[in-house]
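Final paragraph of the annual report: two paired records, presented back to back.
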Amino acid sequence: LDPDIVVHNIVTLPNIKPVKQKLRKMHPRVALLVKEELQHLLSANFIQPIDYPQWVSNVVPVTKATGKI
């Protein structure tokens, strides 16, 4: 997708300190599915890696009716 059409940004206010969520551990099987889906999206150039100094929220996998994430 063209970045002129859609771009996702994490909006944070500069004068407010972000609150870090407690790290939520995933089942190893689910973590593997998430990793595979991320690799698929990266190879399709649908997403790109970025570096934030800290993470703000956890990944929440949602299983589709087909069993995919």
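The closing record of the year follows.
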Amino acid sequence: LSLSLSLSLSNHLPNSKHQIQPANHTRPPICAHQSTLKNGRQTDSTPRVHGSSLSSASLPPPLPTITNLPLPQLLTQFIAALYYNERHHDLQKFSPNDKIPELKQDQPPEVDTLDPEQFKAGQLELARDLITKEQQIEYLISTLPGLDNSERDQLQMIRELEEELGAAEQQRQEALRERDEVLKRLDGLVRLIRRH
């Protein structure tokens, strides 16, 4: 349901693969379950190796690779959207003979029905969040190197870079030799001046 909402709303939102900034608005979580998924997913986020905790200072910085794409965040948003639709929808009758069973006093309700306008607004907001997150992932993938080059082209680029690196190293060595020669001449001039 959330995916169909995302597809239906994509025609009404700006079609830009570089639109990675979400809308500038703050809102409380639509449902308690969504907040739990975001904040209560892992109570202790400190990595542990053989029972000993590692501080953030001892960990290497994250690498900008495809492995740290916000896919877990997208999955969390999918789950929150499914929960919202399942929890807050209205009860409907499929035929005139259908009856909605009445709940007992000690029986928790299966759904927490919201006002139709509020329910629709929540669906729209969830769908926009899903589309924004998908565009973030699409943009990050588009910035990865090598997507438009074959393996042969990449090997050729590596060889050219190695040649450029070798030429730069030769220039560096020549500059070091020139520096040593200039220092020797300067040292000789200083000694000559001291003698006179």
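The longest strand covers residues 48-49. This concludes the annual technical report; the extension proposal builds directly on these records.
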